[in-house]
Amino acid sequence: MTHLALLIALAPMALAQYDFSWAPKYDVTKPPATAPAQPLWTQHFKQVNPTASYADVTTCNSPNPLVWGATFDDGPSPSTPMVLDYLRLPNVSVKASFWVIGANVQFLPDVLARTFAEGHEIGLHTWSHSNLTSLTDDQVISELVYSARTVYEITKVYPKYYRPPYGAIDARVRALANSMGLTAVTWNKDSRDWSYVGKSTLSEMISNVTSSFRGWMATQDPNGLSLEHDLYPDTAAAIPPSMDILIRAGRVIQPVAQCIGDATPYDNPVLKTFFANGFFDNPSLIASGGAGVRTTGPAGETGSNGAASGSSGTGSGTSVSGSSDGSKAKSLSTGAIVGIAVGCGAAALVALTAVLGIRYQKKKKADAAKQAQTLGGESAFVTAL
């Protein structure tokens, strides 16, 4: 058995409270494929919420110009805990928004659990970090559905904010996401940390990123909403010094929902009802006219039959109702990944960290050998750990 195979084989030692049997299978050493399309899901959302329209969030619209939205993309990764350790320091003690990739979560669910438990905002960043504008309607919906299902597995909440990979969004993608009760969040301050991966030393990376933050402070730019990444060791290492610059300048660092005045970032009745009705596990229920509505999460969890209706959430403005026929949802997929439980064996975490590190080194070398292709302010490097 090769060293890599041994590391991967050790991962199941962490069997536990998280169930990813429904997740699409993929090779951890390669970028994940686009989530499998499910036309009936698209049909459902277009029917229940066809006219939803929510403006993209591009800045913190707080009346206090010193408020700054700090956002970190593409985790969880082995580098995320270092960022969390920094954010909880007594002289820092701030909360931020983490936009997580569903496919990454299943390998480091304990990291997402910690992020959420420590009060940081969790937002959807799709299943595979595919460019949504290049996908079909069914693929766009599936990327967001699988992402939401992954986040629910760990946190038991349904986010109503998502970040389109690469910042790539158009009217079609926006309408599809809006029908799911989701509002797009982009940024107005790009640290460009992504552009230095594989091309700069660690010290150069930090210098370049902090230079951007110093420039924004020098011009006293109000209500920034900044983009950084906790994906790679180098990009994660640039987060503490960049946040230090904001703190020294008197900026009030907040998660996105807080900086736009939304106290209910997880009040998404459209997604809640979709999963409670069993439509994720058994899409055929959509074609048959509905399922017994459950009062909690996805099929297989505690719930009861009967009619239920969603209520509007701040910034979401969506409502949806379900009908009951007593149908019991059945599992569709047989994914092979089981997550790591909080506090379970260190051996599995070490193994996964090593595997993800191998992916990081491979990608870093590849990026160093070619010019980065950019779209909307992010590099293609973010498609893999």
UniProtKB/TrEMBL annotation:
Checking Gene3D superfamilies in the record gives: Glycoside hydrolase/deacetylase (3.20.20.370)
Q: What is one process in the GO biological process aspect for this record? A: carbohydrate metabolic process
What the entry lists under InterPro entries is as follows:
Glyco_hydro/deAcase_b/a-brl, NODB_dom, Polysacc_deacetylase_ArnD
Chain spans, region Disordered = 291-325
For this record, the Gene Ontology CC terms, alphabetical, are: membrane
Give a yes or no for keyword Membrane in this entry: yes
Q: Which GO terms describe its molecular function?
A: chitin deacetylase activity; metal ion binding
- Cite the NodB homology domain residue spans from the record: 66-254
Q: Where is the composition biased (Low complexity)?
A: 299-325
Q: Which residues form the signal peptide?
A: 1-16
Instruction: Report TM segments.
Output: 336-358
User: What Pfam families does the annotation carry?
Assistant: Polysacc_deac_1
Keywords from the UniProt entry: Hydrolase, Membrane, Metal-binding, Signal, Transmembrane, Transmembrane helix
Protein known as: NodB homology domain-containing protein
Q: Which organism is it from?
A: Chytriomyces confervae
